[in-house]
Amino acid sequence: MPSLVATDLDGTLLHTDGTVTAYTRAVLAQLDERDVPVVFVTGRPIRWMDSLWEHVGGHGLAICSNGGIVYDVARHEVRTALTIEPEVCLQVGRALRRAIPGTTFALEKTGGFALSSDFVPRAETPPDIPRGSLSEIVDSTVVKMLARHDEMAPDAFWHLVEEHVGSLVTTTWSSSGALVEMSAKGVTKASTLERLAASLGVAQADVVAFGDMPNDIDMLLWAGTSYAMENAHPSVRRVASRVAPPNDEDGVAVTLATLFGLER
User: Fold this and answer.
1) What is the distance between the alpha carbons of residues 89 and 176, in angstroms, rounded to a whole number?
2) What predicted TM-score, i.e. pTM, was given to this entire model?
3) Cα dihedral angle (260, 250, 210, 1), rounded to 10 degrees?
4) CB atoms < 10 A from the CB of 117, how many?
5) pLDDT score for 182
6) Which of 32, 110, 180, 201 has its CA at a distance of 20 to 30 angstroms from the CA of residue 257?
7) Distance between CA atoms of 93 and 40, rounded to whole angstroms?
């Protein structure tokens, strides 16, 4: 029986509309009562997590920004942040603008968000978000750099970004569009989860993980037991040891109920 549950959110634990169902909440509550930590391991920044903290459990920890941040929910503060050096951000920007014209950038930071002047958000954003050239918006608090292209296919863009800057940062993607996510070199969901599990005294073999997109692959390969959601990207299903029902059918909760013998 696993000692720690690690689950992605969008496309995995959450329904497509972004909600946590009553059934999933009940399963997570039962695990919390058994002192089994459930760690959310997500590409989401902290600012997109406010409505989900109540479901993390009594241990109060989550991994955000693809491993860039471990967040202490109880204290409402960043526990650890693995940042990208400002000069590396600038190198990445120069390399991608030169190699893939039309690339635009956004920066996720420990304390907020910033956009390059030509980055057009897909959703409404507050008017006070910093904008400017990369040199104007970059600082020492960047945990994730986003590169987007409005005319390329997602897979093709990801492979090109990896080709040109993969030696500088860790690249991955979890979007349906051509949006590549970049963390500091060597920082992934898996690397941060490994450190967190060790701090909790949990062995790799005793971790069960769930995911659906390429940014989950390293985590699924690392965990002792791994589940790709039935709705997962083909590359994720190829590496996971097992398949869980779709996210819109509470696949994570259904699988956990079976693994732990919980009430259903």
Assistant:
1) 24
2) 0.89
3) 0
4) 12
5) 97
6) 201
7) 30
